[in-house]
Amino acid sequence: MSQTVPQADPRRWKALGFIALAQLMVVLDATIVNIALPSAQRSLGFSDTNRQWVITAYALAFGGLLLFGGRISDLWGRRRTFMTGLIGFALASALGGAAQSTGMLIGARALQGLFGALLAPAALSLLTVMFSEAKERAKAFGIYGAVAGGGGAIGLILGGVLTEYLNWRWTFLINVPFAIVAVTGAILVIREPEGTRNRNRLDIPGVLLVSTGLVSLVYGFTKASEDGWTSGVTLGLFAAAVVLLASFVFVESRVSAPLLPLRVVLDRNRGGAYLSLGLAVIGMFGLFLFLTYYMQNVLGYSPVMTGVAFLPMVAGMITGSTQIGTRLMNRVPARALMGPGFLVASMGMLILTQIKVDSSYWLMLPGLILMGLGMGTAFMPAMSLATFRVRPQDAGVASAMVNTSQQVGGAIGTAALSTVATSASNAFAKSHPINPKSPAQLQMLVHAETAVHGFATAIWFSFGILLAAAVVATALLNGGGKANLVAAKGEDGEVADIPVMAH
């Protein structure tokens, strides 16, 4: 049966604005709360262990349930799932802003993750099915990629401003007006094309296996940063993750209506995009985390100044995504954008390994700009390749895989690189013992040098991980470019990434 491409929705560009706003809200939340945590901790009086849970509860719920959210949007309707996710996210944010206890705050973060897992894949899959013309799709993905890539850094700025001038609670409450605007837009302008839903039943065993498997994996890395890599709990969680995820793959290869059809990830372009993007995010999250601590604790920047210091990186991301990626996406293969993009980002990371206790901002500036330019250039074709030649009925779950690779990558990056930094700092402290009789100023200097040595070591690891992302993208990807303009139909019924309007 031949597939015809539906006429483009005249309100699609307005819809893109509201979809991008919703995506910004979700991405912001990954970093905005980090800046506010010290103030929240003082206000509610929770321990350092519980502080970690404020971050982890969100990552576990979000990362663990994304594939479920993606399939729900395919089955139930992307617009309906999008609106449900927005309303739930706003209510969970209001609960977090009103939190009177640690448990209430952690519960609100878990609910944010749950509704974010509905919202994020629905947003990307709406773009996938609403923009059908090649150049328009490239532009739409450029804007979306800039938001997805730069949102974390914007979160650092906004978190700093809200915490310093209002109150830590506003880092939660700010989501409510965002959600109201996005829901209003969804009601007025977002229309989902007909015939793109998946009418199959939900694969409950698949949902349970992949959700518990991903939660075990993310929690395993979190426990590794707390208890060490060889502790019984850490090893048990990693073993459980391997067994559960292997069982998930086995089940998906057998059931008639799988949660994640294996064709979605076994395609070399989509699989390569998910893997290289996940690796890049591991490296990038490490950078955010360590530079934030470095700027505030060593250089003495305020929360607002820390956020402003990241602005050149955001500008680089927007430039790379909308000016380089969008213009070249339909002209050159994706590997020619993603490989060099991750390589340029790694060069920025290489500059940032040189930080010292007394480094000036001018040392960091070129590193931040290169990071932004490289990641922005690579992010946009990665977002597009994630749904390359995918069946419309699988758009939600293919989109969810992008978010899963980002969320799981972010959680792994934060936990694993924290462990690297702590180990390096401890080794440095042993080889540079402090004489208790030394002047206080000298003792403070050695403490600062110890911390910076740990940060720089972790950034070296991030540099290596970004190089690996460049290698994976170059080796695996062979799609994109002019292939985007061909409405070829595969033998398995999949359709081209960017269909051409039927003549």
TrEMBL record:
NCBIfam families linked to this entry: efflux_EmrB
InterPro entries referenced in this protein's UniProt entry, alphabetically: EmrB-like, MFS, MFS_dom, MFS_trans_sf, Sugar_transporter_CS
Annotated GO biological process: response to antibiotic
Residue ranges constituting the Major facilitator superfamily (MFS) profile domain according to the UniProt record: 15-482
Molecular function terms from GO: transmembrane transporter activity
Pfam family membership, one: MFS_1
Topology in membrane: Multi-pass membrane protein
Subcellular location: Cell membrane
Gene3D superfamilies according to UniProt: MFS general substrate transporter like domains (1.20.1250.20), Multidrug resistance protein D (1.20.1720.10)
Protein name according to UniProt: EmrB/QacA subfamily drug resistance transporter
Cellular component annotations (GO), alphabetically ordered: plasma membrane
Transmembrane segments: 15-37, 52-69, 81-99, 111-131, 143-162, 168-190, 202-222, 228-251, 272-295, 301-320, 332-355, 361-382, 451-477
Keywords: Antibiotic resistance, Cell membrane, Membrane, Transmembrane, Transmembrane helix, Transport
